[in-house]
Structures are given as structure tokens and as C-alpha cells.
Fold:
Amino acid sequence: MTSIKRKIVRYLLILVLLLSACSPAAHAGSTTPASSMNGSCIPPVAALAYPVGIPPSPNAKNTEIAPSGGWQQQAVLPGSTGIDYPQIFTRPGEVWVLAVDAKKVLRYRIDSHEWKSYNTMDDLSVVPRNLFRTHDGTLWGIDSVSFGADSKRSFSFLSRYNAVTDKFEFVTDNNGLLAEGMAISDPIQVTQDSENGLWFFGSRPGDDSVGLYSFDLTTHRAEKRLSFRIGASYVGPVVAPGGDIWFYNGWERALFIYSPAAREVRQYYGLPIFDKYTSVNILFFDRDGRLWLDNKGWLDFADPAKPVWYETIPSPVFLTDNGWFDIRIGDGQVSRYGWEVPSWISQSSNGWFWFTTGRGTIRLEPQNGEWCLFTTGGSPVVEDDNKNLWIAVFDKLYKFQLEP
Structure:
């Protein structure tokens, strides 16, 4: 073979390799997001721009679009009709759903597909208003909701699921500080530190202040750590990786940091400037130790001495025309669109973020910056010990396997 022929053959081989690398078959084993592969994302109401001057429409029920793109229906919630925005938690082999409006807690056994309903606590007609799970997997309730014959009675602020008796039971603190506690937000945000302590905001009847409370899970002793004015909104608290307690004061429109060790509180100065935001609904520390403020952005603590604020570029998936939005844009015109703010944020082990809103549930894949509204149902997304994701929307329970 002459040298010219050898060069031609070599060039042809290179061309074949390049073409095969660009072909769809070459990407059969790639990590293309599921939403990109099957088109499971719901189109936003306004992808690029929206007209102004259109009168706002009254509240209209969203079309019920169930999760797709790998989400599989596992069960139908028993006796449920129109449960909106439930809370959902997992324990080994179980999924728990709190339906506050229906005044019941539901447990689903993954292996046997059996449901059980809990609508009493200590044999009284009481259920928790909020649930949270501690590091050891125990389910706790807070701010009990009474109904029926017990509606005029007062109950303990805390409750706990007892796996031995298979009941929710009231828990009182040893010093009686929370005997008649009252949550000031709904749902109240409870966080656990590394020292076996719970942290939350609350106020007691007759008290003229709101308190940042701690509750020791070992000694059952409660303590009021800080006092603030009543009438303001307090978001949080959340525990930073270093142990400090962060929270947002809506009255002062500022972030604050409480040090449990020093028992001192200080205001955080620096970006973001909260005057440009209407409110902050939720704080969330992700797996990388970044502090998210709703879907507005996050504080990066790569350099703890100089946190950097990253503001997210608003995505159309948070835009909704479902409701009244009296947004003046000049010359008396009113926009028919408004921006949803998440009521819940979580992050799965593969790095994806999940935002629960009134318009639906949204996924963010930070690796490629892809936002996806994948269902019009609003529910937290939680992960079990086997890397399965769970969501409860439209009276049904769905599962997504992160690792087939």
C-alpha cells in the first residue's frame, strides 16, 4: 500500500470515529437527565414573555398532571379526597403522610402495601399539625390539632410516635415550659442540632414575646433562648454545619445567627439586600453547606469569613397565572401573572433539589441548571434509605428510583 493510500485510510478511520462519537448510539450510557430524555417537564405558562394589561383571572383549579418520567404510582391514599400539600416522611420500610386538613396521619408499609390511619393521640381525638423526623428516625409531632368532642381542650405542644404501642403520644418537658405552647407559623420549622437538641420558634398564651426555644431530646428540658416582638414573621431556625442557628426576622428583614455555645445572637451583614424581595418563606442548608433562601439564591460558605451570595436567575417554572395578582406595572395596568415561592425545599443524594409550590413540585438539576415542573401537585419529595424518592399528590403515592 502506497503512502498516499495509507493516509487516505487513516483519514477515513478518523472520520468514522468522529461520526460515531456524535451519533445517538454513542450516548446510550450517558447521564442525560430523565426529564430531557422523555420530555416529562410541564411547559411554563409563559416561556419567554407575557402580555401586560390583561385583567387577572379568578382562582382556577390547576389541571391535575401526575408525575411522569420514571415516577411510578405505588398506592392510593385510603379514604382521601382532595388532600392538598401533605407532609411526607420516610422510616425504614415505611412512608408516612400527614394530611392536616383531613386530620389524620397515614402510614404505608412498602413491602406489604398496607395502610394504617392514625387520628387519635393517647386515645383522644387529636393529631399533630406538623411532623418532623429526628436523626434516629423517630417521628415527632408539634402543635396538635383537636377536633370533635375534644375541640375545647388544651394539649401538650409536643408528641411522638411510639413504635411499641403503635400510637402517637403526648410528650411534656420536665420544666413545664411547653405545656401550653403555640406555634407561630404553619408549618412550623423544627431543626435538630448535633447535640440531640431541637430548635423552633413559638409563643405561650399570655406571653408578650416570641421565643426561640430549644428542647433536649435526652433530658426533655425546654429552654427559651431568645425573645422577640410578637407580630413579626420568623423563618427558620436552621442549623449550620458548624452548629450556629440561623433564622430570618421578617420585621427587621434581616438574617440573624445565634451561637448556642456563647448564647449570643448577632445580625448577619452583607448580601443579599432584602429590600428587593417581598418576603422569605424558608431557609434550607443543602448537602454542601450552602444556605438557600427560598428559590432566590444561596449563601456559599466556601470561605466562612466571607460568604458569597449567589442570586438565582428566575425560572419561568415558578410563574403562574392561577390566582389574583394585583401587580401594578404602570398606567393602571395589572399583570395576570405572579411568582410562586416554595414552601418546602429538599435535596436528594444525587444532588437534585426539589421545591414544593402552590403551582406544583419543581426539580432543579444543578449540574446543568435545568429547572423542571414535573407535576402540578404540591408535595415534599423525600428519600428513603434505599435511594427511592417519594411524593404524595392527588391522593396517590408515587416512587422514583434513583438507582435502578
